[in-house]
Amino acid sequence: MPPKPRRNDVPLLYNIILLLNVVSLVSSKSTIEPCSNSDSCNALLGYTLYTDLKVSEVASLFQIDPIALLTANSIDISYPDIENHILPARLFLKIPISCSCVDGIRKSLSTHYKTRPSDTLASIADSIYAGLVSADQIKEANSIDDPSVLDVGQTLLVPLPCTCFNGTDNSLPAIYLSYVVREVDSLTAIAARYSTTITDLMNVNAMGSTAIKAGDILAVPLPACASNLPRYASDFGLIVPNGSYAITASHCVQCSCGPGSLNLYCMPAALAVSCSSMQCRNSNLMLGNVTWKQSSAGCNVTSCSYGGYVNGSIITTLSTSLQPRCPGVQQFPPLVIPPTTVTGDSSFAPAPAPLSEGGGKLPKTIVPTTGSLPGLAPFAGAGVGAPLGSASDGCSLMNQLSSFGGPLVLFLLLASIWVPF
Ligand SMILES: *[C@@H]1O[C@H](CO)[C@@H](O)[C@H](O)[C@H]1NC(C)=O
Ligand SMILES: *[C@@H]1O[C@H](CO)[C@@H](O)[C@H](O)[C@H]1NC(C)=O
Ligand SMILES: *[C@@H]1O[C@H](CO)[C@@H](O)[C@H](O)[C@H]1NC(C)=O
Ligand SMILES: *[C@@H]1O[C@H](CO)[C@@H](O)[C@H](O)[C@H]1NC(C)=O
Ligand SMILES: *[C@@H]1O[C@H](CO)[C@@H](O)[C@H](O)[C@H]1NC(C)=O
Fold first, then answer.
1. Is residue 347 one of the residues assigned to a domain?
2. Are 200 and 169 in contact (CB under 8 A)?
3. What is the residue range of the signal peptide feature (predicted)?
4. Cβ–ligand 3 contact at 295 (below 6 Å)
């Protein structure tokens, strides 16, 4: 049965699959989002730990900020010595990454892995990166001719799956989780677990049927709080999933989403770092402060809110609005203590036992090849792309892909493809 393109029925699918040259005999499927510009967005990877790992080790496996890893999972960062806390094998984590557009397809190319003795491409793909990548994809990304000879200490690019879909799902702000299907999963259970519907998952992933298999990678939309930061801010495009936190502005500002309203709420982060002023100009209000006065016309609400991180400065904006009702006390998503065991809880659900080979040892020397972890502002530079389908995007896409012809370009712009990889 032919897969259906997302939100747009175009009967050219097979041609496009051939054009993209993504058909192979391997049976796992994954969702491909064609893209047209160099913008990137925030995305999440659903990752299951293959062994016990410190917070900092998980972070360096993906070359991300450990604090961003913790806040994305609502883990309390005020816990003592949190970066050295050991997270248990089989724990499910959401890994915040930046999703870019590479050769017309959304993917993340910011992860590198330094090989250790006894690594094989299969163990790196299936065990260490928990099925988020295949051995063939690593082989291809690194132009490896003979996968049986991996030098120890060799640095490999690990391409990882991600989607942006314009930061929306059904016109509401959303961030996309790349989810590796497990043996025990059904589409119904995944939809329930992430508070979405089967129809939505099928649309997003351009699926022709509800059949899924272990190893397939689904794009799962998570409702989120979008930001409205200016393009010149280094954290432009900041988007925070419901029920979690993000840290930004060089660890100075913490933003949360939910549980009540899906309006992004930012306030000073309780981390011992030196920060530029977070006071709103011409007022005594600090970032995150909201005051109100009941008047005959309604509730006069004044708030000092976050306007982005610009050239090392925290931008604050003071705004006053007349609202029908006065706001209540700000609600925060519940924080969890750093997990030490894997429970049956839905956010930290157990995954199948990791591959036994090479799974028992704690890697001590996972070194990011760039030599430096990304700065302390995890979302810096990771902007949500300009709206797909705007006139200018259409033009640049035309230029890039001019040989493909118009209708095809339109299709590529609007569709995702659920393809074997
Ligand atoms: C956000 O999360 C809260 C609790 O986790 C839930 O009650 C609420 O329905 C969620 N909102 C949306 C829009 O999913
Ligand atoms: C304003 O925000 C600061 C920092 O979060 C907080 O300490 C203070 O209590 C707040 N003041 C009011 C009036 O809400
Ligand atoms: C709301 O309050 C601010 C200052 O507290 C005041 O300047 C403004 O005029 C008030 N607006 C309304 C509509 O009452
Ligand atoms: C940031 O600083 C650079 C040079 O220091 C300046 O050219 C640029 O305009 C500044 N950006 C903003 C938004 O202030
Ligand atoms: C992308 O999202 C923006 C709002 O965030 C919306 O205005 C625009 O229409 C969307 N574009 C597409 C192609 O969905």
1. no
2. yes
3. 1-28
4. yes
